[in-house]
Every structure is written in structure tokens, then in C-alpha cells.
Specification:
- 2 copies of one chain form a homodimer.
- By secondary structure, the first copy, chain A, is of the alpha/beta class.
- Chain A has 2 domains: 74 residues, Orthogonal Bundle (Arc Repressor Mutant, subunit A), CATH 1.10.10; 184 residues, Glucose-6-phosphate isomerase like protein, domain 1 (Rossmann fold).
- In chain A, helix 1 packs antiparallel against helix 2, helix 9 runs parallel beside helix 12 and helix 10 runs parallel beside helix 11.
- The two termini of chain A are 57 Å apart.
- Chain B binds a DNA duplex through helix 2 and helix 5.
Chain lengths: 304, 304
Amino acid sequence: MAKSPKISASHESGGLIVHISGLLPSLSPAEQRVARLVVADPADAARRTITDLATAAETSEATVIRFCRSVGMDGYPQLRIRLAAEAARRVEPPDARVVGGDIPPGADLAQIIATIAFNDARAVEETAEQLDPAVCEQVVEAIVGAGRIDVYGAGASGFVASDFQQKLHRIGRTAFYFPDVHTALTSAALLGRGDVAIGISHTGTTSDVIEVLEQARSRGASTVALTNFPRSPITEVADHVLTTAARETTYRSGAMASRLAQLTVVDCLFVGVAARNRARARKALEATAEAVQSHRVGSGRRRG
Amino acid sequence: MAKSPKISASHESGGLIVHISGLLPSLSPAEQRVARLVVADPADAARRTITDLATAAETSEATVIRFCRSVGMDGYPQLRIRLAAEAARRVEPPDARVVGGDIPPGADLAQIIATIAFNDARAVEETAEQLDPAVCEQVVEAIVGAGRIDVYGAGASGFVASDFQQKLHRIGRTAFYFPDVHTALTSAALLGRGDVAIGISHTGTTSDVIEVLEQARSRGASTVALTNFPRSPITEVADHVLTTAARETTYRSGAMASRLAQLTVVDCLFVGVAARNRARARKALEATAEAVQSHRVGSGRRRG
DNA sequence: ACGCCTCATGAAAGTAAGTTTCATCCGTGG
DNA sequence: CCACGGATGAAACTTACTTTCATGAGGCGT
């Protein structure tokens, strides 16, 4: 046979629909009916079985197959998945996600979710973009070589500090976190050369954290600041400054996006440190995971 | 038959892949093999015939069909076109960013940062996509009407629980968090009808948290579970189930991305609750912000 | 330990979908 | 009028998909 032309199966990848409507006039009447259905609603066509589509086009399955070949497909299933893919691609991104702004008063949950997720994701991405690998490297270096690591933070940043402490601890580094300023100051006073003190403050103006970091520095420890504002007071007492890039919404609750950004930075440092000695880190992680195993139910796969 | 529960075919519209990876641990071994293939390369899977896929997963066609049903599809063809659509929608990961995977041994800091940020951002976005606004609404409703709210969580999820508690507290809701199981149990025993208990566990298998939630439920409180796995044990003791969508890797068992996903959900709930009474919430926030004002330096402009 | 039960699983039977073949139809040009 | 060629659908055929069922492994209570 070898008659069906099979128009350029090669490079119409960018627009099957366009391609089809382009060669619509060159198709036989019955095939055109099929083509029109397909072009009109690709997603719907993808859902139909070949018999279904044939019936809808008032023709036979054979014609549908011929149509497939005419537009360069191997067969109906291939057309189907291509159509599905095409249809999915042309869905435009969600409407009005408020960027960096406040949540509008009348917003419903779906809007709130979309807005928050969008801003959270952006904060993470933008933070990563502006993060200086060189500075990270220095910080990782310092942590790896440190005898002891203190992590300070208050309020919402306290959670992040605590999280970082726990992470470092899990891979066998001696790390501390203090929820209380006095204790933190006491600890800072005992730091020395080669130790590391990390202060986390979104605004960079939390006096408690600054004070403690200052103390640590005066004792010879390397100091690191993690803040959203590169020229805030905390940066003045830090040897290394890492910044987040969260544009907080007006609902400045507890600094929502900034927490995530901070955590992302923490993750990077953590992995950086862990990567310095993969074997040891992995072993430590496995050991700690095993330790809590007895507090888990359904060891195997879970189900109802 | 009527055995495979067919988890929420309703609201996984936003992310089939995500949905599948969430269900992964609850699947049988053979189905898991299929699932892994599908998740690893949806586009490729969409191209395969059922026999082909079965062979690749070293199992029978029957298992593939079972897998389809398990993830809420009618049959294989439907899965196929959904996969094709999904694959088309997703932008492929830029260059060498390992998606959901491990950081390669030789990676430098810049690579580590890019990879982590990418995965973190994805976890946030995908979580938002699959989050059911209706369930969120119910939870918000419950919190708004609650006399008291207990938030439980252990390990990494403990930070999230604590964060949520603090947020709720800041807008004037009576919320508690307990780092210790015994105290938590004691508290749960004192809950009653109209109160809310929220349990956070990434794996959904943390027995401590489950136990406490169960206790709370038996006392008549509304129970909420926040987990990555929609069919994990914790969901059995929860009236409302909220899921995150972090594909955590084995190595990074510090549950990095999942924390961010959890926090995003927490943020959504928080804003949802706050939106119920904007005036009051705003006033409360301002009051609390003012309270820590004396602990800030350089009240004026910070930043550049 | 034993038997019971449940569940996972693939073989095979059964059904539906997709593909090919082929006879028919229709219009066209000799 | 007949030969011809393309379009078309019926039906045969093939492949893909789905269901049923027997088997066997693993857990659970006795």
C-alpha cells in the first residue's frame, strides 16, 4: 500500500493540534469529521475509545485509524496520549495568585492555599538564587572543623535554630541550642577559637541573638548570621553572613515564608557538612533512625 | 470485590504522580514496583502497553490493573492518558538537579543548593496542589470553634507542631504543644467535645503521636492528622486527614522537604483561621509584635 | 506447633479495543 | 457501457485490557 502520506511525524512535536488543523483540508471527508472533533476538544477525544470516537464522527474505526496515520501517528493509542499531553500543556497557570502581597479579605481557602504556596515556593527559590556558595562553603568549613557549634535564635527563628541543632547533632556534630538567653550567653562565654556560633534572626534586629553572637565572637569563635536583611545589625557581629530572600506578606504573622527560606539554607549547610564525610554521616543518620524505630507502628507497608 | 479503597480519586487532579508517591508505602510489593516505574518516568510509562509495563516491573498485567485501581483510576488506559497529561504539564528539572534523589557524591555547594531548593520548592507546590480545600475548611472551622487546641508531633514534626501552636497562640487561640508524651497524654485526656487535637507525623507511623491522638478522640475531641502518607496508621485515628506531598529520599531522612511542606499546610490553616476574624487576629498580632519590640535594636530602617 | 484465615499474586480465560483485510460503492473518464 | 481508483465500512483478526480463579506465603489466634 504505502499510500497514506504520513505527514512529517518528525517535528510537529510542538503542536499536534495545529498540525492537524493544518492538514485538515487535505484529508478525506470522513477523516475530516474525525479531525474536527479532535481539534475542537483534544482532551475529550483523548478520553474516548476508538469505537466511541468513530461513532461520534459518524464513521468507522478504520477511518479513525487512517486518520491517525494521516497525521503521522502509528496508531490510535499514540494519538490518544499525544492528545492528552497536548491538552494538558495548554492549561494556563492559575489566575490571581497574589504575589508577595496580602491575602485579600474575601479569599476562600483555595485562594489562600495557592497564594501561600506560591510565595513560599518563591522565597525558597529566590533564596537559593542569591545564596553565595562561597560563603556557604566557608561556613561549612567552619562547622566541619568546629569543636562545638552553638545555634541561636528567638521566636520563630528559634524553631529553625533548634532544627539546625538537631540536624547537626544527628550527624554526629556537637551542637547546641538554647531557648533561653541567659543559658545561651553562658554557653557563648565558653566558646573559643575554632568553635562556631550561628545566629538566626529574620529581621536581623533581635537584640538577644545579637548580644549572644557578640559574646561568642569576643571569645574567638567564628560567627555566622542568617537573616533576611544583609545590612541589619546582626551582620555587624558576624564573620559570615547568609541571607534569605523572603518578601514577607503584610500578614507578617510569624514570618511565614522566611521560616521556609531559613530552613532551606539550613538544609543546604547540613547537606554540605554531611557531604564532607558521607560515610560517617550516613551511618549516624541510620543509627538515629534505628533508635526511634520502636516508636513506629507497622514496620512493613502501611495500610488500613 | 470492593476491597481496594480507592483513595480520593476526587482531589488528586492536581498531581497524579504526587498522589501515587504518597500512596507508595501502602501498596503491595508488586504494585510498588509498578509505582516506582511510573513515578520515575511517567512519560515513558504512558508510552508502554500494559503487558510491556508489567514485564518491566517483573509482574503480571493483573497487578498493573490492581495498581491502577489502587491509585483511583478506572483502568490502564485511563492511567496512561493521565500520565501523559501529567508528564506534559511538568517542566523537566533543569540540568543536573537531582529530583527527589540523592545529592551526587562529588557535588559542590552550588549544586547542593540548587538541588535542595528545587526539591523544597517542589514539595511546597505539590503539597498545595493536592491539598483539599474542603478538608482545610473543616479543620479551620473546628479550630475556630474549639475551646482548646492541642498540637502533637515528635522529632522533626515536633518543630512544626510547636510552630503551629505558637502561631495559633499569637492570634489569641488557646493552643498547646507538648514535647513530652506523658504530658501530651495527660492533656489529651482532658480534651472534650468541641476541642481539637492535631497530630503531625511525616511517616504517619509515630506511635506516640497516634496514641495521643487516639486518646483525644476517645474523649470526644475532633482529631486532625497531617502526614505524607494518606493511608498510614495515623489516618485511622483522625477525623480529618491533611497530606503533604514530599518525596523524601532515604538518605535525607532528616525529612528536609517534608518539614517545609508541613509548614506550608500549617501556614494555610493559620491564615484560614486568622481570616475568620481579621480584625481580632490583626490586633493580636500587633500586640504580640509590640511585646517583643524592646528586644529589637535599631527600630528605624534596616536593610539597604 | 497447628490450622485457619487473609492477602498477594500470576495463569489463564474472557472481553473489549485496535488493526487489517477486503468487498462494495461511487464518481470519472474512456 | 465498462474499467478504474479512491473512499468507506463490515467483518475478520490481532492485540490489549480485564476478570476470575487457584495457589501459596505469612500472620494470628488457639
